[in-house]
Amino acid sequence: MAANYLPLYRPGHTVTFSVTEAVKAGNFCELGGTDWSVKPATGTGAVIGQAGHDAEIGDRVTVEIGKPIHEAKASGAVTRGDSLKVAGADTVAKNDTGTVHGIALASADAGELVPFIQV
């Protein structure tokens, strides 16, 4: 029987993240200091969407995103916030140059699944 694939989240799905610095409704959010966390964007980090409501440190916040969130095997070590590229039919790798295909939402070692937002 053929296998199927679905992304972790599709555009329009509610995606919640932990808050590492207080955010206000409408703030652009970038990745925070831990996996699956956000803080207000500074313009230097990986911006993933906008906060749907006010949230304090330690709370959960709904972030409005416009791209799907996928998960694939890391071909090497990946750190949260890394730009990723497709490395093969079913793997992604850290990308220092060239076309960016995603942003890692969590850290992973080689062979582990890494969640990433498609860009």
TrEMBL record:
It comes from the Bacteria. It comes from Brevibacterium gallinarum. InterPro entries: Phage_VT1-Sakai_H0018. This is DUF2190 family protein.
